[in-house]
Amino acid sequence: MSRLLKNYANKITQIYKSGKHNGIDIVGSNNGKSVCDYLLAHSDGVVVDARSNYNKTDKTGNSYGNYVKIQHNNGYYTMYGHIKYNTVKVKKGDKVTKGQVIGYMGNTGHSFGAHLHFEVRNNKDEKIDPTPYIDNDLPSTTDDAYKTFVKGVQSTCGAKVDGIAGLETLSKTITVSKSKNRRHAVVKVLQTYFKSLGYDLGSYGVDGCIGNDMVKVIKSYQKDNGCISDGVITARNKTWKKLLKLI
Ligand SMILES: [Zn+2]
Question: Is the pTM for the entire model greater than 0.90?
Fold first, then answer.
């Protein structure tokens, strides 16, 4: 069975080669014969790009032809190329679940024979080798980011650094806002974490200082997580508790 095809096992027709072939080519295998199949979403996520109307015989105009690009919960992307004309079942902004049919294998774009061109991209949208993930979950980078965050908070606030948030860590946290501790070392840790969660830090980025953009980010995080949206991170208003996953 396959995580990417509905009815058949994977038959790899071209492997990943960094810089030359930034994905992996797959067809269905039916007793050794190559077959087409419905394509499935690799993991839960949101469609960030999709195209279904490419129906030209010109193979040079668009390398992917019709495609679907999904961003997953850990920030990684998967990309499905050469999908058959007019069979893409999802559009930009749609939420998809693992195993959901997203289209039908095809031969659109720069393709010579129907197949799926499958790519995995990290949270910076850089193409990486998809081979380890064809039938496995994507790495849990949000967990890694969280651990780094907890350690960063602990070290900058003077708590014991063990990467495990608890009440001791919470008791050491400080109030952070535009008027209080705006340049404290923990601000950089917070900015890095907000960025990994997908918040837009604005033009100054991770600069270790709370300005208007960072206040906006704090407010959106608070709103998204059921805290009072006041732009101030304190233990009392539960924002620290939420960030450290203690509630
Ligand atoms: Zn390919």
Answer: no
